[in-house]
Amino acid sequence: MIRRALEQGAKEMGLEISEENILAFELFADQLKKWNRKINLTAIISDEEIAVKHILDALVFAGCVRDGEKVLDMGSGAGVPAIPLKIVKPSVPVTSVDAVGKKILFQRHVARLLKFVGFEAIHARVEELCRTHGHGFDLITSRAFSRLEQFVGFAAPLLAEGGRLVAMKGPGAADEIQADEERLAALGFEIVSVTPYRLPFNKGERNLIGVTARKAA
To answer: DSSP per residue over 50-89, as a string?
Structure first.
């Protein structure tokens, strides 16, 4: 079922997924369901929902990641988008951080099974990373982690010079952008892109919001 949903959903979204990637996603989904019976990792538990809302949604974000960028996934939960990103772009260094230890243990377990190289799952609060990973990431993302203003505030000390932020947001993004745009400017950042897209099987609308530091006048 997970395979069928991935193949049909990817076709509907115009995405390509290799056979090798499908096998890795099947393993990820299987382990997610297995662990979720004992640990509350996610409320998304059906094969179709996992395929669409965890994997295909993450692949839209993966499409904007450039080779060689060091990526941080803030508040990564069960490893989304960090794990799907690493599956389709194995050469990209990926770090995930979450304050819930059991979720990080799950990510490390999947990373071992899939033999990831250049993947680090950190059990910590985001603000604690500044001491060890300050200005260490070229691209920072979050999915429903917080409001834009809070996301940018947490991410700014971790962002390398010339780096960028991509927030993964739901259908209410326009209202949030309008409310937070002035606050972002006060932090020295600006919204440079909003990319809307629809999930397959009528599973909802999403937006990728690109944010960068404002250039000096």
So the answer is: IIIIIIIHHHHHHTTPPTT--EEEET-TTTTTHHHHHHH-
* pLDDT score, position 98: 96
**Residue 23 parent element (H or E):** helix 19-36
In this predicted structure, what is the pLDDT of residue 205?
A: 95
Strands (E), the chain: 71-74, 94-98, 119-123, 137-143, 159-169, 189-198, 205-213
Q: Could you give the CA distance from residue 31 to residue 24 in angstroms, rounded to a whole number?
A: 11
Global pTM value: 0.95
Dist. CA 116–CA 30, nearest whole Å: 17
Tens of pLDDT, residue by residue over 79-89, are 999 999 999 99
3-state secondary structure of 92: coil
Paired residues of 140 in beta bridges? 72, 165
